[in-house]
Amino acid sequence: MSEVGTVFVGNKPVSSYVLAAVTQFTSGSKRVVLKARGRAISRAVDAAELVRRFLGGKVDYGNIKIGSEKVGEPGKERTVSTIEIELVKKE
Amino acid sequence: MSEVGTVFVGNKPVSSYVLAAVTQFTSGSKRVVLKARGRAISRAVDAAELVRRFLGGKVDYGNIKIGSEKVGEPGKERTVSTIEIELVKKE
Q1: Chain A positions with Cβ closer than 8 Å to B
Q2: B2 and B27 in contact (C-beta within 8 Å)?
Q3: What's the CATH code of the domain at A23?
Q4: What are phi and psi of A59, to 5 degrees?
Q5: Of A45, A46, A81, the CB nearest to B49
Q6: Smallest Cα–Cα separation from B50: which of A67, A43, A77?
Q7: Of residues A74 and A41, which shows the higher confidence score?
Q8: d(CA B57, CA B60)
């Protein structure tokens, strides 16, 4: 398992993303980044808070990045907001 | 107008929060913090990105904080995620 894990948050129940992140931490990752776009951003924030609660304060927030990206076919593109929430295991 | 403005993001159209934040900057605030809970978190991120685009790179992200708070009547409380997105005017 790599040092930095990534979880892409979409439309599944938030528990599936919490499980994915916790699994990456327990398998040895020191950092896990939750990535989401558009309406899934709220779910990514929920997942991050649940991971912190689940791991009982052993995980802190690292860098939180907000941005935008273009989605859709050329000529019909639209801009959607993005978030990257870095969770870091405390030493 | 105080140095630090605050915009609470709820269920209105995102444009109303963009306007509120831009107005605070143009009236002299150096920092504006967008605050949101639950599903409005995605809208707050959208608003922050739109403010940055609208003000043409004159505004950067400062501190972004994620947390939780309890809502609802005593005994029927539930925990909801929160976000605070600080936008800072470049000198």
Answers
A1: 38-42, 45-46, 48-49, 53, 61, 64, 66-68, 79, 81, 83, 85
A2: no
A3: 3.30.110.20
A4: -130, 135
A5: A81
A6: A67
A7: A41
A8: 7
Residues in chain A: 91
Q: How confident is the model at residue A91 (pLDDT cuts 50, 70, 90)?
A: confident
Q: Do A81 and B40 touch (CB under 8 A)?
A: no
Q: Which residues of chain A make contact with B53, given a CB cutoff of 8 A?
A: 68
pLDDT of A56 reads: 87
DSSP letter for each residue of A39-51: THHHHHHHHHHHH
Q: Are A87 and A48 in contact (CB under 8 A)?
A: yes
ipTM of the complex: 0.92
The Cα A22–Cα A25 span in angstroms is 5
From the list B64, B67, B7, B88, the residue with the least C-alpha distance to A81 is: B64
Domain hosting residue B73, numbered range: 4-89
**Total domains present in chain B:** 1
Q: pLDDT grade, residue B29 (50/70/90)?
A: very high
Strands B31-37 and B59-71: unpaired
Report the percentage of chain A scoring pLDDT > 70: 98
